[in-house]
Amino acid sequence: MRHIPLHIAVIQDGNRRFARDQGLNTAAGHQLGADTTEQVLDWACELGVRHITLYTFSTENFRRDEEELASLFTLFKEKFIAIMTDERVHKNHIRVQMIGDRSLLPDDLLKTIAAAEAATQHYSDYYINVALAYGGRNEIVHAARSILGKTKAGLIDPAVINPAIVESHLNRGAPIPPVDLIIRTGNDYRTSNFLPWLANGHESAVYFCAPYWPAFRKIDLLRAMRVYDQRMRLKERV
Fold first, then answer.
1. Model confidence over 192-212: pLDDT tens digits?
2. Where are the alpha helices (DSSP H) in 155-217?
3. Could you tell me the pTM of the whole model?
Protein backbone atom coordinates (compact mmCIF):
# COMPACT_ATOMS: atom_id res chain seq x y z
CA MET A 1 0.00 0.00 0.00
CA ARG A 2 1.33 3.42 -0.93
CA HIS A 3 -0.70 5.42 1.58
CA ILE A 4 -0.87 4.44 5.25
CA PRO A 5 -3.42 6.37 7.35
CA LEU A 6 -1.87 8.37 10.17
CA HIS A 7 -5.02 8.14 12.29
CA ILE A 8 -7.63 5.37 12.30
CA ALA A 9 -10.79 5.62 14.41
CA VAL A 10 -12.70 2.42 15.16
CA ILE A 11 -16.34 1.94 16.14
CA GLN A 12 -16.14 -1.47 17.83
CA ASP A 13 -19.68 -2.69 17.27
CA GLY A 14 -21.27 -6.10 17.72
CA ASN A 15 -19.94 -7.56 20.99
CA ARG A 16 -23.41 -8.27 22.35
CA ARG A 17 -24.77 -9.64 19.08
CA PHE A 18 -21.72 -11.88 18.69
CA ALA A 19 -22.21 -13.23 22.21
CA ARG A 20 -25.90 -13.89 21.56
CA ASP A 21 -25.16 -15.75 18.32
CA GLN A 22 -22.56 -17.89 20.11
CA GLY A 23 -24.81 -18.65 23.07
CA LEU A 24 -22.62 -16.62 25.44
CA ASN A 25 -23.52 -14.01 28.01
CA THR A 26 -22.99 -10.31 27.36
CA ALA A 27 -19.92 -10.06 29.60
CA ALA A 28 -18.19 -12.79 27.58
CA GLY A 29 -18.92 -10.87 24.39
CA HIS A 30 -17.31 -7.75 25.78
CA GLN A 31 -14.27 -9.75 26.95
CA LEU A 32 -13.84 -11.27 23.49
CA GLY A 33 -14.18 -7.80 22.01
CA ALA A 34 -11.43 -6.55 24.33
CA ASP A 35 -9.20 -9.41 23.16
CA THR A 36 -9.80 -8.36 19.55
CA THR A 37 -8.90 -4.79 20.45
CA GLU A 38 -5.48 -5.91 21.66
CA GLN A 39 -4.89 -7.81 18.42
CA VAL A 40 -5.95 -4.86 16.28
CA LEU A 41 -3.64 -2.53 18.17
CA ASP A 42 -0.74 -4.91 17.47
CA TRP A 43 -1.65 -5.05 13.78
CA ALA A 44 -2.01 -1.29 13.49
CA CYS A 45 1.38 -0.73 15.08
CA GLU A 46 2.93 -3.34 12.79
CA LEU A 47 1.41 -1.62 9.73
CA GLY A 48 2.67 1.82 10.75
CA VAL A 49 -0.56 3.44 11.96
CA ARG A 50 0.62 5.95 14.56
CA HIS A 51 -2.73 7.08 16.00
CA ILE A 52 -5.75 4.92 16.73
CA THR A 53 -8.92 6.02 18.50
CA LEU A 54 -11.27 3.38 19.89
CA TYR A 55 -14.96 4.12 20.42
CA THR A 56 -15.18 2.04 23.56
CA PHE A 57 -18.17 3.46 25.43
CA SER A 58 -20.50 6.24 24.33
CA THR A 59 -22.60 8.63 26.40
CA GLU A 60 -25.65 6.73 25.07
CA ASN A 61 -24.29 3.46 26.50
CA PHE A 62 -25.13 4.65 30.02
CA ARG A 63 -28.72 3.59 29.23
CA ARG A 64 -27.73 -0.07 29.53
CA ASP A 65 -28.68 -2.05 32.63
CA GLU A 66 -26.65 -1.73 35.82
CA GLU A 67 -25.23 -5.25 35.66
CA GLU A 68 -23.78 -4.71 32.19
CA LEU A 69 -22.40 -1.29 33.16
CA ALA A 70 -20.68 -2.74 36.23
CA SER A 71 -19.18 -5.52 34.12
CA LEU A 72 -17.93 -3.05 31.52
CA PHE A 73 -16.38 -0.69 34.07
CA THR A 74 -14.58 -3.63 35.68
CA LEU A 75 -13.26 -4.71 32.27
CA PHE A 76 -12.10 -1.17 31.44
CA LYS A 77 -10.31 -0.95 34.78
CA GLU A 78 -8.55 -4.28 34.21
CA LYS A 79 -7.36 -3.20 30.77
CA PHE A 80 -6.00 0.15 31.98
CA ILE A 81 -4.18 -1.61 34.83
CA ALA A 82 -2.64 -4.02 32.31
CA ILE A 83 -1.40 -1.12 30.19
CA MET A 84 1.00 -0.02 32.91
CA THR A 85 2.98 -3.27 32.76
CA ASP A 86 2.39 -4.25 29.13
CA GLU A 87 5.79 -4.79 27.49
CA ARG A 88 4.38 -3.88 24.07
CA VAL A 89 3.33 -0.45 25.31
CA HIS A 90 6.77 0.38 26.66
CA LYS A 91 8.73 -1.30 23.86
CA ASN A 92 6.82 0.58 21.16
CA HIS A 93 6.59 3.84 23.15
CA ILE A 94 2.79 4.02 23.01
CA ARG A 95 1.02 6.88 24.72
CA VAL A 96 -2.43 6.02 26.03
CA GLN A 97 -5.07 8.58 26.90
CA MET A 98 -8.80 8.80 27.44
CA ILE A 99 -11.10 11.18 25.59
CA GLY A 100 -14.62 11.74 26.84
CA ASP A 101 -16.56 13.15 29.76
CA ARG A 102 -14.65 12.12 32.88
CA SER A 103 -17.36 13.50 35.15
CA LEU A 104 -19.59 10.59 34.14
CA LEU A 105 -17.23 7.77 35.17
CA PRO A 106 -16.73 6.08 38.59
CA ASP A 107 -13.88 7.44 40.71
CA ASP A 108 -11.99 4.13 40.91
CA LEU A 109 -11.97 3.82 37.11
CA LEU A 110 -10.85 7.44 36.73
CA LYS A 111 -7.92 6.88 39.10
CA THR A 112 -6.81 3.84 37.12
CA ILE A 113 -7.09 5.74 33.83
CA ALA A 114 -5.05 8.62 35.25
CA ALA A 115 -2.34 6.20 36.40
CA ALA A 116 -2.15 4.57 32.94
CA GLU A 117 -1.97 7.99 31.28
CA ALA A 118 0.82 9.07 33.64
CA ALA A 119 2.76 5.86 32.97
CA THR A 120 2.80 6.53 29.20
CA GLN A 121 2.69 10.33 28.93
CA HIS A 122 6.38 10.58 27.98
CA TYR A 123 5.92 8.36 24.89
CA SER A 124 5.35 9.80 21.43
CA ASP A 125 5.89 7.09 18.80
CA TYR A 126 2.33 5.75 18.83
CA TYR A 127 -0.92 6.98 20.38
CA ILE A 128 -4.00 5.11 21.58
CA ASN A 129 -7.02 7.27 22.37
CA VAL A 130 -9.72 5.45 24.31
CA ALA A 131 -13.11 7.12 23.87
CA LEU A 132 -15.01 6.50 27.11
CA ALA A 133 -18.21 8.29 28.08
CA TYR A 134 -17.75 9.95 24.71
CA GLY A 135 -20.24 11.76 22.52
CA GLY A 136 -19.26 14.02 19.63
CA ARG A 137 -21.87 16.69 20.30
CA ASN A 138 -21.12 16.57 24.02
CA GLU A 139 -17.44 17.14 23.23
CA ILE A 140 -18.21 20.23 21.15
CA VAL A 141 -20.56 21.59 23.83
CA HIS A 142 -17.80 21.29 26.45
CA ALA A 143 -15.35 23.02 24.11
CA ALA A 144 -17.83 25.87 23.57
CA ARG A 145 -18.30 26.29 27.33
CA SER A 146 -14.54 26.39 27.87
CA ILE A 147 -14.01 28.99 25.14
CA LEU A 148 -16.92 31.07 26.42
CA GLY A 149 -15.45 31.05 29.92
CA LYS A 150 -12.08 32.23 28.65
CA THR A 151 -13.77 34.89 26.54
CA LYS A 152 -15.61 36.25 29.58
CA ALA A 153 -12.33 36.25 31.51
CA GLY A 154 -10.67 38.25 28.75
CA LEU A 155 -8.27 35.45 27.85
CA ILE A 156 -9.64 34.96 24.33
CA ASP A 157 -10.74 37.69 21.94
CA PRO A 158 -14.00 36.54 20.28
CA ALA A 159 -12.81 38.09 17.04
CA VAL A 160 -9.90 35.64 16.76
CA ILE A 161 -11.82 32.43 17.46
CA ASN A 162 -11.09 30.07 14.58
CA PRO A 163 -11.11 26.29 13.91
CA ALA A 164 -7.67 25.87 15.50
CA ILE A 165 -8.86 27.42 18.78
CA VAL A 166 -11.97 25.25 18.84
CA GLU A 167 -9.91 22.15 18.12
CA SER A 168 -7.48 22.95 20.92
CA HIS A 169 -10.38 22.85 23.39
CA LEU A 170 -11.83 19.54 22.26
CA ASN A 171 -9.56 17.15 24.12
CA ARG A 172 -7.10 17.17 26.97
CA GLY A 173 -3.73 15.48 26.81
CA ALA A 174 -1.80 14.92 23.61
CA PRO A 175 -3.20 16.61 20.50
CA ILE A 176 -5.17 14.28 18.21
CA PRO A 177 -4.68 14.68 14.45
CA PRO A 178 -7.57 14.60 11.96
CA VAL A 179 -9.04 11.15 11.32
CA ASP A 180 -8.00 9.61 8.01
CA LEU A 181 -10.13 6.48 8.22
CA ILE A 182 -13.16 5.38 10.24
CA ILE A 183 -13.85 1.66 10.57
CA ARG A 184 -17.19 0.35 11.82
CA THR A 185 -17.88 -3.31 12.38
CA GLY A 186 -21.20 -5.10 12.90
CA ASN A 187 -22.83 -4.31 9.54
CA ASP A 188 -24.27 -0.98 10.70
CA TYR A 189 -23.84 1.95 8.32
CA ARG A 190 -23.56 5.01 10.54
CA THR A 191 -20.84 6.86 12.43
CA SER A 192 -22.85 7.34 15.65
CA ASN A 193 -21.77 10.78 16.80
CA PHE A 194 -18.09 9.74 16.73
CA LEU A 195 -15.42 12.43 16.37
CA PRO A 196 -17.56 14.79 14.25
CA TRP A 197 -14.94 17.53 14.30
CA LEU A 198 -11.89 15.39 13.55
CA ALA A 199 -13.57 12.91 11.19
CA ASN A 200 -16.58 14.43 9.42
CA GLY A 201 -14.97 17.85 9.41
CA HIS A 202 -11.96 16.46 7.57
CA GLU A 203 -13.91 14.16 5.21
CA SER A 204 -12.24 10.97 6.39
CA ALA A 205 -12.63 7.73 4.47
CA VAL A 206 -15.14 5.30 5.98
CA TYR A 207 -15.13 1.51 5.89
CA PHE A 208 -18.20 -0.44 7.02
CA CYS A 209 -17.88 -4.20 7.37
CA ALA A 210 -20.11 -7.11 8.39
CA PRO A 211 -18.06 -8.98 11.02
CA TYR A 212 -18.96 -8.29 14.62
CA TRP A 213 -16.03 -6.79 16.51
CA PRO A 214 -14.91 -10.05 18.22
CA ALA A 215 -14.67 -11.65 14.75
CA PHE A 216 -12.70 -8.79 13.16
CA ARG A 217 -9.56 -10.09 11.41
CA LYS A 218 -6.33 -8.64 10.10
CA ILE A 219 -7.62 -9.01 6.54
CA ASP A 220 -10.55 -6.76 7.48
CA LEU A 221 -8.13 -4.11 8.71
CA LEU A 222 -6.10 -4.39 5.51
CA ARG A 223 -9.26 -4.03 3.40
CA ALA A 224 -10.18 -0.90 5.33
CA MET A 225 -6.72 0.55 4.81
CA ARG A 226 -6.98 -0.24 1.10
CA VAL A 227 -10.12 1.94 0.95
CA TYR A 228 -8.07 4.82 2.34
CA ASP A 229 -5.22 4.10 -0.07
CA GLN A 230 -7.59 4.10 -3.05
CA ARG A 231 -9.15 7.38 -1.92
CA MET A 232 -5.74 9.02 -1.68
CA ARG A 233 -4.73 7.72 -5.11
CA LEU A 234 -7.89 9.27 -6.60
CA LYS A 235 -7.08 12.60 -4.94
CA GLU A 236 -3.62 12.51 -6.51
CA ARG A 237 -5.17 12.25 -9.96
CA VAL A 238 -7.35 15.32 -9.52
1. 889 988 887 777 899 999 999
2. 163-168
3. 0.92
